[in-house]
């Protein structure tokens, strides 16, 4: 089954075209790696897939539903990790995760498992506003994967993590159907099935990963 189907998807902010003419399919179980320089349209695409932004052009289907029109039917099956951690800053990590666990009917035991997995058990009962950037990111990853989503939408998921933390977090976000925005060319390519390169909001590269070299991806940044 197709997890994502995009047909000529575009989006503008006022006069500025952020995304145009994106047509692609991602099959269930595949990873789409998205590359492109700052402002290329990567986050705009991810937000459309997350049902947070309406495309102004074309049709976007996620897990079989048109978004954002039928977004209600897929939102609970998505795991979104954007630039913002989407955590309540005055609550602790554990309280934030309990809130999400209740929403998604997830047993609380999974919260401890995840906090352990990302090395956050000792700080889990401190308010989120006392966390370092890396701690925020670890907690945000826990939130994104808590309900075992059918599709992970990840915007630079290892940003701000030290190598030890990155090694802890990576296994939690390394399987299933995924869209991953990355600036790490080698790592991003290694885990991709399909590669999308954006330039100025347009498709500059769209190939199966086996047909793409690191030099092809680096060319997007010059
Ligand atoms: N809310 C907004 N209002 C106006 N313009 C916006 C808005 N959000 C994004 N844009 C513009 O849309 C274009 C694409 O932005 P987008 O955030 O999708 O890029 P990106 O590839 O994710 O960049 P980065 O690597 O810096 O995160 C840019 O020109 C940006 O300035």
UniProtKB/TrEMBL annotation:
InterPro entries: AAA+_ATPase (IPR003593), ABC_transporter-like_ATP-bd (IPR003439), ABC_Transporter_VariousFunc (IPR051782), P-loop_NTPase (IPR027417)
Entry keyword set: ATP-binding, Nucleotide-binding, Transport
Top-level taxon in the UniProt lineage: Bacteria
Molecular functions (GO terms): ATP binding; ATP hydrolysis activity
Nucleotide-binding keyword on record: yes
Domain annotation ABC transporter: ranges: 4-222
Keyword ATP-binding belongs to the record: yes
The name this protein goes by in its record: ABC transporter ATP-binding protein
Source organism (scientific name): Solirubrobacter ginsenosidimutans
């Amino acid at each position: 089954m197709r997890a994502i189907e995009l047909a000529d998807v575009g989006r503008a902010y006022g006069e500025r075209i952020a995304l145009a003419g994106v047509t692609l399919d991602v099959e269930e179980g595949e990873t789409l790696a998205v590359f492109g320089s700052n402002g290329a349209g990567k986050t705009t695409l991810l937000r459309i897939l997350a049902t947070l932004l309406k495309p102004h052009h074309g049709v976007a289907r996620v897990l079989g539903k048109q978004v954002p029109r039928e977004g209600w039917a897929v939102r609970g099956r998505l795991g979104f990790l954007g630039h913002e951690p989407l955590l309540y800053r005055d609550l602790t990590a554990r309280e934030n995760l309990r809130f999400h666990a209740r929403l998604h009917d997830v047993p609380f035991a999974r919260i401890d498992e995840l906090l352990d997995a990302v090395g956050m058990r000792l700080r889990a009962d401190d308010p989120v506003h006392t966390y370092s950037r890396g701690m925020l990111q670890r907690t945000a990853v826990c939130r994104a994967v808590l309900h075992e989503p059918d599709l992970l939408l990840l915007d630079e998921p290892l940003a701000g993590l030290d190598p030890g933390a990155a090694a802890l977090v990576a296994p939690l976000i390394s399987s299933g159907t995924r869209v991953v925005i990355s600036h790490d060319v080698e790592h991003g390519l290694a885990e991709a099935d399909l590669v999308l390169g954006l330039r100025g909001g347009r498709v500059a590269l769209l190939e199966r990963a086996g047909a793409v070299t690191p030099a092809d991806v680096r060319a997007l940044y010059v």
